[in-house]
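Reviewers of the previous submission asked for a worked example of the structure-prediction workflow described in the proposal, so we include one complete record here. The input consisted solely of the amino acid sequence. No template or homolog information was supplied to the procedure at any stage.
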Amino acid sequence: MPLSTNWPEGVGRRVLPSIDSTNAEAARVAGSLSGPEWILALEQTSGRGRRGRAWVNPAGNFAATYVMRPTEPPEQVALRSFVAALALYDAFAAVTGRTEPFGLKWPNDVLLNGGKVAGILLESIGSSGGVSHLAIGIGVNLIGAPTVEAVEPGSTRPVSLLDDTGARVGQEEFLDILAPAYAAWETQFSTFGFGPIRTAWLARAVKLGEVITARTAREEVVGSFDTVDETGNLVLSTPQGRRAIPAADIYF
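From that input alone, the workflow returned the following structure tokens.
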């Protein structure tokens, strides 16, 4: 299939019929790449979500990884989860012609009518404590959503783009829309830093100003979702004061 006329210059495009995990493939090939590359799997057999959870990927859904060589310190590199979320939001708007059903959930999910339609997983590739490459894994329920039984109890219910909007889009077609959207936000990030990304993300955030629950490995924090700070932390107002939380699972 020919590349989209909007395909970003200098970015590779690799489409595989079947693979275990696009993030795993990114780790295998990163050292041989001359520049950033998108890796798309038409079938993914062992996808991963956050905290090592399985990512259930029904046939026809989207599984891809953007692999790149970052130059920033590790704490800034991780902010690309917000870049990817904004790109997904724009891609969904382009496919459906609508923005109102979509929202961004901290730290790395995209919601459609309140259900999870996409997730993002960042993994660093390197050795001896260094990050030589970054893999940004993206899973999208284009055609079908996993059953409720297939996801962790209490998690946001899974939904699919087709079922909730009627928009049918193929995996390669979606990549041709997502890649230039990501490139545009990446340029913003690399040129101006996290500030504009943070502002844009907060404008699309769900539950801003509402009471939510953040569950970490050690505790559960309930508070009003105030903002995301300059380092990407979730900031909650609680009866005990403001709390900045670097990593957690969020429940509504």
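Helices lie at 22-29, 74-77, 80-96, 161-165, 171-192, 194-203. We consider this example representative of the routine output the project will generate in years two and three.
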